[in-house]
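User: Predict the full complex structure for these chains.
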Amino acid sequence: MSDRTHSPEETKAALHDVVVEMYDRIVKGEPPTMTLPVRTKNNITFNTRLGVYKYGKSTSVRDATSLRSAKQLLRALHVVEFIEEMIDAGKSSTLREMYYISEGWGHGKFGSQNESNNLAEDLEVVTKCLREDFKLRPEEDGARIIGNITLQERNRRGEWMRINARDDVGDSGYGVPYNVESEKLELIEHDVDFIMAIETGGMFDRLIENGFDEDHRCALVHLKGQPARSTRRIMKRMSEEWDLPVVVFADCDPWSYRIHASIAYGAIKTAHISEYLATPTATYLGITADDIVAYDLPSDDLSKKDIEALNAELTDPRFQDQWWQDQINMMLKLGKKAEQQSLAKYGLDFVTDTYLPEKLAELGLA
Amino acid sequence: MTEKRDIAAKMAGNQKQASISEFFEKNKHFLGFDSLHRSLITAVKEAVDNALDACEEARILPDIRIEIRKADPRRDIIELEVEDNGPGIPRDSIAKVFGQLLFGSRFHAIRQSRGQQGIGITGVVMYSQLTTGKPTHVRSKIASETTAVEMELGLDTKSNKAIKSKEQRVPWILDDGTEKVSGLNVRCRMKAKFQRGKQSVWQYLRMTSIVNPHASITFVDPEGETTHWPRVTERLPRKVSAIKPHPHGIELGQLNRLAKATKAANLSIFLKTDFSGVPGRAVKEMCEVSGLIDSKGQPLKSRPGRLDPEQIRALAETFQGIRGYLRPYRLDHRGSRIYVADARRPGSPSAPIADAKHGDLMEALTDATIDDLLEIVTSRTDMHWEESLTELLGTVKAAHGDGPWNKQAADAISKHLRKTWDPRIVFEAVKLLKPPIDCLSPIEELLIKKGLSKTIDSRFVTTLTRAPTVSTGNPFQIEVGLIFGEGMPSDSAVEVLRFANRVPLMYQQGGCMLTKAIESVDWRQYGLDQPGGNGVPKGPAAILVHLASTNVQFTSEAKEAVADNEEVREEARKAMLELGRGLRKHLEKKKKLAKTQEKFELITDILPAIAEKSAAILGRDVPPLAGSITKIMNAVIAQEATTWDKEHKRTNVEISLRNYTAKARSYTLLAAWPQRQGATMINNEQGGRSEMTGVWAWKLETLKPGESATITFGLEGLEKGDWTETDVFYRGAGDVIGASKMDDALLAELRRQEEVLSGDPEDEDGGALEEASDGAPEEPSATTPPPDEDPVEPAAPSGPKQTLFDYTEGDA
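Assistant: Here is the predicted structure of the two-chain assembly.
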């Protein structure tokens, strides 16, 4: 994201704008405020130029007329000050560290880690800067990759290390660092036909044990649930720089659909940087609601929460495509969901010998 | 009462065939000795009830100590010792009190008494003897004797008489070396089990302490752990007087017994002297409607015991209002009833002709003539009157002729009769006076409050004593209390504390009418959890309900659940609703207060921090905050602090009012204060005036934006915890957070509460209320009289200590 990052001066100026808004309001004898885009599914729209979903024009004003909002404003100020100190000192910190540092912020102290994460995102959205600009790192678990691709990563001593994600790694694969921008990571070469993103660790390990990556000439990415920013970013880079197709292999439940949406269309929480994280060409391979029927897979009943989530997806702008509407409605009609591992009903090799080849053939990748 | 007699009768009858011990064995479930665990509770209950009753009778503030020791843990043998400071029992009566079943005066009088339950201390003596073979040890001292008498008591179960042994005279020296003035010590050994929990001796004593705030109770359990429930009032319960039965509550069998047993020489004297609520006028009327009159229309002179069963039945029907008078009336031009003088006659309420079946009536009318009509109508109802019948005949004749009528005409006449014929007659039972209600001894709101507060440590307590009322001739009174707050479990059902005549009811909660009254309220609207809007609510609360009555009806002989009675239940329900409203008000106030606190935190801590931090980041000056503060608060805020000043033994109240709006505001501030509780207002430097009894008012200077005013005063003559929260009111424009707007409705409500609280029917509304209504509430004049010149200044030394304490007078 080097082309997206801002200089320390730009970052500071953008952060100052947030502070100025509050200050000026007090000078005017009004309660201080912070204006930010609404971050819900109702305020994301498809950007045809970028091919991803971005925040729309709705904004909300957080004003200091309630104790909760006032505390949010105060916290934002502390975070701004903290970021400036880090920029000036050439340091960085994790979000979790910032959460603990806030212990010393008096009334501006965070109530939970979630609050500090959200506030960092708020500031990103408002300033259009990235958290890298803020010198804030996530602690989120980056993905693992296995496959015949070669990358170059700058280590702690500042030296470039060349790594082949098949030959130079152990069983756990290549661990994706939190920063995957070009100053830290370069994509060198590859000998694969496509990238397969896999939701669960169990399935990732199954495919590796069965040698699927070599048999089908692909790189396997373990998403670890909802993928971290760096996971989405590296997939996007591989897809664009190497012009490789990305397929998503997940469970068949409403949450897996959302994982795919965040990879392919952009996540609601990070819609301000969708164009850097989303891979519009990514395709959902399975498991689809159709597959439950077609392969007669063992399934579980949808829970109340699942049904609520599916109904929410029906009105989510990212799922307005007819194929998705059909899949969601079908899952609702079946009242069932299925895990990737349910394919083991037909034996351990069924997924690599039968299911995936058949599904890939539909996409013309087999 | 009747049950008592029934048991007595049963026992007397049974004695011939079976021994008393057999009877006891057979009936132990309703005597309270059905399990080892319950037997102990019952024994404690009998002893403690006796002590409380005796102290009350002798006007002594009770000090009761209960000790339970494990005499032989392997065989569940427990020693129980109960000691009081009551009047003691004279030597010659001890054997009777402890050794004879059903001894005592309370079985014959109708009044509120604890002893409606159980069979008394004799049961304990008997149970001890039956289970351990050991006699009960009694030590008693009466004030007029210098030494106490000690003896051991057993029971001769064949003759129903006590066996005395080891009698001796001993000096009774207390631990502090002084001699005991009077009192009773009872010690017995029985097979029993001590347990803790919801149904335990501890819980029984705790509940007893709540409803007997005048008692000091100490309990030592088998582990040696001591619980002390202190006395919280010096006021003894009102001495209750016995009343005679009221006719409305009397059934046939009971009337029969009363008639046989009376000493009255004749029927008139019987009615006049053996019942309450029967004025002289009613005696004659009752005899008349019962048909118990001679040829001259005078009441029969016969002895009540000589009345035959039919006559007794007629009298019972009169008692119950089944017989009475039929009374004709006319309607005046406005439709009001004018009763026809002296034209009533005895009768009973019958179904009006409107209830007659149309088919039957039509059949009777078909082929009938105008001459038959009179008979047809009178055969179907007593509700007729000659004049209106004549009118009716005329109408029918004009419309349908003399008859005979065909089906069609009969149909029309029947409809006419059923719909429009007005018999112009009403049924009236003989009018009786209500029974007197001074036979009840309510605990009173304030004392329940104290009782609850001492046993449950919590923040909010509301209590209510309803006015006494009457159900089928029995006076009764409902009292309720609710305590809410931290320290009680919030996810389980509220604790229900049920009492009948100051006796805790610990079993059969679900089947008790008092519980049903609680369940009949939708507590959700008052801030308690209640799944589905019925059942016992959940939440950090306890609900107390006390039924005081001369005749508590229980669902069974076990006497643990009050039987359903619509009037009593409705009274209890109404009381609950009022508690609920109190709770909701408290919660709303709390919520509002929390919100206000938040706003204060916002403007005092957060906003300055935002201003400083933003100024620091931008390298500018810290901006002034006044404008933002006004916008954020945009309200006038009243804050009240009521604190206890330990040093001066005084309650201090501080009320401040700050104008956080952009406009100047002008207010009169009012505050409630416990004038009725005997408090004296001191250090009230801002002056003001009395608005009404218990409400003081101050006219404040106009407050400009950002300005504030503070009022302080002290309250003397109260104890810690008596007054912990001061209600603040205001008159003026807009809303004041933290105070209620004083308007006519609120003022009326306060006056009503004041009347209830005054609790003194003779002094209906004192002078203060009139004074208050005289004074224009919002005097424009800026000169308010200094408080010491105010004619209603309640703090004047001549002012009497208020009425709640009155009812012990004459006994002091």
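Chain B touches chain A at residues 598-599, 601-602, 605-607, 609-611, 613-618, 620, 623, 625-628, 630-632 (CB under 8 Å).
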